[in-house]
Amino acid sequence: MHHQQKTNTKPPSTSLTYDDASPQSRAIMPNPPTLAPVELAKSYRLLNHGPTTLVTSAHNGVRNVMAAAWAMPLDFDPPKVLVVVDSRTLTRELIEASGVFALNIPTRAIAETTLAVGTLSGRDGDKFDALGLATMPARTIDVPLVAGCAGWLECRVIPEPHNEKRYDLFIAEVTAAWADPALFSNGRWHFTDASSKTVHYLAGGAFFETGDAFTVEAKQP
Ligand SMILES: Cc1cc2nc3c(=O)[nH]c(=O)nc-3n(C[C@H](O)[C@H](O)[C@H](O)COP(=O)(O)O)c2cc1C
């Protein structure tokens, strides 16, 4: 059954602010306390350069975060994304129960955290508490967002049971998107320094940071 969720094409009009975060968490996550809404039609650009993501999820009072390198944009309008979530993860269980998740886009500054949430399982305890991660509430879904990231996509699963079961592949509609305005504005990334760059994962703790931006005109045939 193909179940298309209701689409919200307008960007959220106001910005998000931090939850009560401990002073310690704020020290670890030094981003500004507000996020700029990203026009949904441009939300795919948060993922277009292929960064590693953090998938946040929640259900029945249990919240979780895991790393996912296998996430990408799928469609412009309504914007859709896909992400591969292994069947053994707690994240998978929470997404299947709630039908929602968020893709948080971490920077190099929190690469160690990214590796940790991709190594530990929420089944062994709350990773937010264990790693001192501050969160913010999402606007359109009941899932925490990880503070200190560069961008955030709030996502609602479009059920495709075959893909989910056979390939661990989840397709979702983006219902809201946010970015740190210092790093992404007017539909473009503007990384300020190495620590603010998004990261790409190889394996075994090895990452690349996003490289220099450049623009070209199409080669004339
Ligand atoms: C950088 C990185 C990227 C990862 N990418 C994925 C991914 O795309 N899909 C996936 O299922 N697991 C991926 N993993 C593994 C999960 O993050 C890992 O299994 C995690 O411990 C699951 O946590 P949970 O049980 O709390 O949900 C990745 C791990 C790392 C370190």
From TrEMBL:
The keyword Flavoprotein applies. Residues 1-25 have a biased composition (Polar residues). One of its GO terms (molecular function) is oxidoreductase activity, acting on the CH-NH group of donors, NAD or NADP as acceptor. Keywords: Flavoprotein. Its cofactor is FMN. SMART domains: Flavin_Reduct (SM00903). Pfam families: Flavin_Reduct (PF01613). Residues 1-33 are annotated as: Disordered. InterPro entries: Flavin_Rdtase-like_dom, Flavoredoxin, Split_barrel_FMN-bd. Residues 45-191 form the Flavin reductase like domain. The keyword Isomerase does not apply. Belongs to the flavoredoxin family. This is Flavin reductase like domain-containing protein. The lineage of its organism: Bacteria, Pseudomonadati, Pseudomonadota, Betaproteobacteria, Burkholderiales.
